[in-house]
Amino acid sequence: MTTPSPVLKEARYTWGGDEFLFVEVDESMSLAANFKVMSIARKLSDAALAGVVDICPANASLLVRFNPDVLPPSSLESSVRNIELELQNHDEQSLETRIIEVPVWYDDPFTAEVAQRFREGFHQEPDGTDLDYAAKVNGLQDAAEFIRRHHEQPWLVSMVGFVAGLPFLFQLVEREKQLQVPKYLSPRTDTPKLTVGHGGCFAAIYSVRGAGGYQMFGVAAAPIYDPAQSLADFEDFMVFFRPGDIVKFKPVTEDEYNAIQAQVEDGTYRYRQVPVTFDASKALSDPRGYNQELMEALNGI
Amino acid sequence: MAFEIKNPGLATTVQDQGRVGYYNVGIPQSGSMDQYSAELGNALVGNPATDAVLECTYLGPVLVSDADAIVAITGAPVEVKVNGETQPQWTRLQLSAGDELSFGVIQGGTRYYIAVRGGIDVPEVLGSRSTYTLGGIGGLNGRKLEAGDVVPVGAPDGDLPALEVMPEPFRPTFAKEQTVRIVLGLYDHRLTDTGKANLLNGEWKVTPVADRMGLRYSGPGVEWKEREQPFGAGSDPSNIVDAGYAVGSIQIPGGTQPIILHRDAVSGGGYAMVATVISADMDLVARAAPGTVTRFAAVSQEEAIVARKERAELKTKAWEAVGAKP
Q1: A166 and chain B: CB distance < 8 Å anywhere?
Q2: Which residue is closest to B307 within chain A, CA to CA?
Q3: Chain A residue with minimal CA distance to B21?
Q4: Distance between CA atoms of B129 and B151, rounded to whole angstroms?
Q5: How big is the A-B interface in CB pairs under 8 Å?
Q6: Measured between CA atoms, how close is A259 to chain B, in angstroms?
Q7: How far is A68 from chain B (nearest CA, A)?
Q8: Residue B68 — φ and ψ, nearest 5°?
Q9: Cβ B249 vs Cβ B202: under 8 Å
Q10: What is the pLDDT of residues B221-258, one digit of tens each?
């Protein structure tokens, strides 16, 4: 069985002024790097150090905000270094998390309309669509094949941020099968709320309307950020996604999208989700077989 | 009691000391951009430092108090008017029920603050009253003020301090030139020597693209080292695998215009940061208006922590100078 961490070198420690410690686990994105980031974040959170203000795990790095009046930088650094060392000797391979089905209306009119307004000077192919461009740069036959590749295999929420509740997602497939699409040449000033976007190897779901540079492929049917906390999935917190969540996108038609919208309106919508234990070593050694196992968990509910 | 908003001004929001602990899900700290000025407003009206104030940007609001109220206007220099008559800034003012507070043209800087005895009393969201407009939370309905809004003011919970006026030495300056202290780090190793020299020796100017999220500067640009980009990082040498952004960090997309992230920062993204403004100078950055000539001075983290202590001491002295308790 392969393990995620031996391929990773020691992390790079550097400072963001007097209040932030930045720990770069790897320059490159990988499941192993993200898993190590999440493990460090979890252990640091468990350590409950006085003076730690925010622990922000990202794709392949970790940002820690601290109050230097309470916690001297050197103490924080040695605590995190100890955690890193501990993980090397006693590697954690599994994560208690959940798999969530996220309905997406691919090739929808909302993102298409916005894309129309940002072509010349913004997009690599002003005369084409984002989906056609994504299919082309990935050597795929057409947009339909790209969409199929996008929802066939599940994704890991590798980071939450940019704006409130926006998940970055990393697909659980081999590196050579990763979908990669450059960002827009220049960022748009508008992106519809709940746009399913893509930049580099990451998917994202825009939690709020606003600026954005990711290619746009579709729109998620249900909210992922709900400050009013009106839906049951937001009872505990206004932000839906957490790092470590596993997401299976499910393509929906316009009618299905409208039906979900109606449920959101009357407050009855619930995401299909089920707790799973995610085993990073299995995900690395046999992604397809293991993904099948993960996705089957959704069939039982 | 409450303020009735006749005219909201350009971007008037409720702010306090900010919301910490949710940056990991992309919710920024928010809070008054110029914390020092906002806090001293609270000191003058006998509030605790944690009370919420109104942050005004360039064009202030026109508001009417529905009851007797005690206010103080601090921050950027601006003409303060009560029922059309000019009143001093950095001074405790008595408003009677029905009095109208309005403002003239800003004379420097960017933001000024209306502190009111009792504090702005909107509900706390995630532990703070600060408005985060992009996420639609905090403040009054998660947005900037609009005409017709009624802004609730809380009940006073302390004594008024002995002095009515903040002594001059404690008032910040709003100069057309600034030196901002930074700590190099994060991804500064990705800059060429020329790039680093440009950052530290160059003259930078605040562009009009400056708001609560961040300030963009124009200047000589910097140079990035060429390299084969790591997997997932994006194609430009200024790109990294999307990472968390330190508040105050400086990113230079494409190597052209540095951006300093401020209190409504996006919490992460794919641009390399090369330095971070020290916590003691974040208020200074917040005071910069477009056109402000800025130099970046590199200091060590130790020096940053000394500056942080000095700032805290200055604040304490200012509170004591008017006879208030911080």
Answers
A1: yes
A2: A18
A3: A54
A4: 12
A5: 184
A6: 26
A7: 7
A8: -60, 140
A9: no
A10: 999 999 999 999 888 889 999 999 999 999 998 889 99
Task: Write out chain A residues lying below 8 Å of B27, CB-based.
Answer: 164-165, 239
Task: Pick B25's closest partner by Cβ from A29, A61, A239.
Answer: A239
> For an interface test with B, which of A163, A166, A224 has the most B Cβ atoms less than 10 Å from its Cβ?
A163
B243 reaches A (C-beta below 8 A): yes
pLDDT in tens, chain A (301 residues): 344 444 789 999 999 999 999 999 999 999 999 999 999 999 999 999 999 999 999 999 999 999 999 999 999 999 999 999 999 887 677 899 999 999 999 999 999 999 999 999 899 999 999 999 999 999 999 999 999 999 999 999 999 999 999 999 999 999 999 999 998 988 899 999 999 999 999 999 999 999 899 999 999 999 999 999 999 999 999 999 999 999 999 999 999 999 999 999 999 999 999 999 999 999 999 999 999 999 999 987 7
Q: Per the CB < 8 Å rule, is A17 touching B246?
A: yes
> Cβ of B308 under 8 Å from any chain A Cβ?
yes
> In Å, how far are A177, B33, B270, B325 from B262, measured between CA atoms?
38, 8, 17, 28
Is residue A15 a contact partner of residue A22, using CB atoms and an 8 Å limit?
yes
Q: Round to whole Å and give the CA distance between B224 and B232.
A: 18
Nearest CA in chain A to B231: A28
User: β-strand B78-82 against B85-87: which pairing, if any?
Assistant: antiparallel
Sequence-ordered list of residues with C-beta below 8 angstroms from that of A218, at least 6 positions apart, any chain: A104, A105, A106, A107, A108, A111, A147, A195, A196
The Cα B205–Cα B176 span in angstroms is 10
Give whole-number Cα distances, B14 to B38, B42, B124, B138, B289, in Å.
11, 14, 11, 8, 21
Q: What share of chain B is helix, strand, coil (3-state, %, to 5)?
A: 20, 35, 45
Q: Which value does ipTM take for this structure?
A: 0.97
Task: Report the alpha-carbon distance of residue B300 to residue B305 in Å, rounded.
Answer: 9
Helix (H) or strand (E) holding B244: strand B239-244
- Is B243 in Cβ contact with A63 (below 8 Å)? yes
Distance CA(B301)–CA(B184), nearest Å, equals 9
